[in-house]
Amino acid sequence: MADEVKEIKEKKGGKGLIIAVIGVVFVLLLVVGGLIVFLLSGDDENAQMAANTQQQQTTQAPAPQNRQPGKRSSDFMNMGPIYPLDQFIVNLLSENGSRFLKTKIDLEQSAETLTPELDKKKALLRDIIIRTLSSKTFEEVSTAKGKDKLKDEIVGTINEVLSDGYIKNIYFTDFVVQ
Question: Which whole-number Å values give the CA distances from 14 to 7, 25, 66, 85, in the listed order?
Fold first, then answer.
């Protein structure tokens, strides 16, 4: 009799194990199916958003206000109109005040329509540039990396005061430090 009870328990345990395995496989299939549906529906939504964004970009030109201040253009193949400024001579920050910088700067405009505003605000532009240059030390302007950082700072500050366009880049056409 004990052998029969043991045999019946083994049969019931085997069926229970099979049912458990089938249940786990079924749950895994449901989870994988749900993930597939979720991922496929997300791709359609992302593709539709990308298509809408591309359509908006082709139908309207980006506004100058969308430009981030301080970001200079590196598109040298499509340079904008150049607005030359007069020469700048400023004292650099130093302990004894004996360092100075002499430079000439040209501004690259986003469009020719910016020229009248630059003419009108020429004194403000020169003031911004003089304040920025005179706040630097010899060490800050003597390296190429320092000059690039200086350009970014000047472009960002100037673009904050312009409304008819923006400055894409500035060029040092003369740069002497003593």
Answer: 11, 17, 68, 90
